[in-house]
Specification:
About 35% of the residues lie in helices and about 30% in strands. It has about 180 residues and is of the alpha+beta class. The radius of gyration is 17 Å and the shape is globular.
């Protein structure tokens, strides 16, 4: 049987070690780091340098998805221990009904999402495999990723400037609104 204080100390040590590792390089598979350090993915993201991420409440779920629907081609990823599923194309519009955010519009991506399960949204910008990435990541109460939506790239493989501008503005607007409301 483990001792609660020892577990807390051990957890804090893992967090501190990961913060130090990520201060030196933000590249790599964050899910693998979560497993390696016995942390949730959200805890791993929170260990990245502060300039890499902006965190807002999951209460903005429907608003954020509504915005993403107008951004053009994106890459939506669902990453579980068993599969990494990717869809590249526009994020579909949706509407609330029967407790779900129902994706509409006849796109290849469809489904029924549970807004009330989203506790946290993170606007994340970091290098991955030598390229700058930017994504909007949706987390449940346990700190597990529900899904992630990555910005698209131009012909030179740079992040699309129009999407990056919208990404930055949306993250700042939501964070500012929360700061005023607290």
């Amino acid at each position: 049987m483990s001792h609660p204080q020892a577990d807390a100390t051990s957890r804090q040590g893992r967090l501190d070690a990961l913060r130090q590792q990520l201060a030196e390089s933000q590249d790599g598979m964050l899910e693998a780091l979560a497993v390696q350090h016995s942390l949730s993915l959200l805890e791993v993201v929170s260990c990245l340098p502060r300039h890499c991420w902006q965190r807002v409440s999951g209460e903005h779920f429907v608003e954020v998805l509504g915005e993403l629907a107008g951004w053009g081609a994106l890459t939506t990823i669902v990453h579980t221990p068993d599969v990494i599923l990717e869809y590249s194309g526009p994020f579909p519009e949706g509407k609330l009904g029967h407790g779900f955010y129902n994706l509409q519009g006849g796109h290849a991506l469809s489904g029924h999402l549970k807004p009330d399960r989203c506790a946290t949204i993170v606007f994340l910008r970091r290098p991955f495999m030598g390229l700058e990435t930017a994504s909007v990541q949706f987390f449940n109460e346990a700190g597990d990723a529900m899904f992630k939506v990555y910005l698209g790239r131009d012909e030179a493989r740079r992040l699309r400037a129009d999407q990056l501008e919208r990404f930055t503005a949306l993250g700042q607007r939501l964070a500012s609104a929360e700061a005023v409301g607290s």
